Amino acid sequence: MTSAKANILLVDDHTLILQGIRHVITQMPEIDKVYTASSGAEALLLIRTQPFDLYVLDVELPDANGFDLIGQIRQKYPEARILINTMHEEIWILKRLSQTPISGAILKSADIHELTLAIQTILKGGQYLCKRFRTILNRLHTDEQLKEQLTLREMEVLQAIAKGYNTREIANLLHVSGNTIESHRKSLMSKLEAKNAVDLVLKAIHLGIIPLGHK
């Protein structure tokens, strides 16, 4: 990036957050102007008029899907630098963000220092994920590795345990011996580090191996 100061588009539908972040960003020496939009429609009007050095977006807007907005920015400006600023910590959102062509992501629970550091890093051509985002993604990666360790038969036994079946019922269901089912049960308890059947099912639900309310 040249020595010229950057123009930023800030998009957030919460007025206090929008103005608060704007105040912080305008104090940064790297920044020239900060444009704001409180809806997807407002953002698109500004995006059509000029490119920005950085787009700071929320993923949830009253009239637009943030992921769709990212796509529209990318379509018009393929090299656009996009920083996501969101309060959402749901695994599926963070996982989708990790697979989306953005320059960085920061959770609104992060402090101001991380926000300014993210902006500085991205304007210099780098990428930035806030500490909590990285922690959640690392945990997700670990969980997925654990899921991959379960065999197909262990998955069947786990699902049957979740339905409340006992060893004999599972053995009859899968046409194997009770000893075989007990062996699978012990393997499951070990892999998921569970203390008992209830703990096993709860951990399996938490990891997304079986859905909540599995019947």
What can you tell me about this protein's structure?
With about 220 residues, the protein is of the alpha/beta class. The protein is about 55% helix and about 15% strand. The protein folds into two domains: about 5-135, Rossmann fold, CATH 3.40.50.2300; about 150-205, Winged helix-like DNA-binding domain superfamily/Winged helix DNA-binding domain (Arc Repressor Mutant, subunit A). The protein is built from ten helices and eight strands. A six-stranded parallel β-sheet has the order 2-1-3-6-7-8. Strands 4-5 form a two-stranded antiparallel sheet. Helix 7 (about 150-160) crosses helix 9. The N and C termini lie far apart (about 55 Å). The model has no long low-confidence stretch (mean pLDDT about 85).
Low-confidence parts lasting 5 or more residues at pLDDT below 50?
none
Using the 3D structure, state the CATH architecture of the largest domain: 3-Layer(aba) Sandwich
- Strand order in the largest sheet: 2-1-3-6-7-8
Task: Indicate the percent of residues in helices.
Answer: 40-55%
Radius of gyration: 24 Å
- By DSSP (H or I, 4+ residues per run), the number of helices equals 10
Strand content: 5-15%
Mean pLDDT: 87
Structural class: alpha/beta
Q: Can you say what the CATH homologous superfamily of the largest domain is?
A: Response regulator
Which word captures the global form?
elongated
Number of strand elements: 8
- State the end-to-end CA separation: 56 Å
Q: State the major sheet.
A: 6 strands, parallel
Secondary-structure element series: EHEHEEEHEHEHEHHHHH
User: What would CATH call the class of the largest domain?
Assistant: Alpha Beta
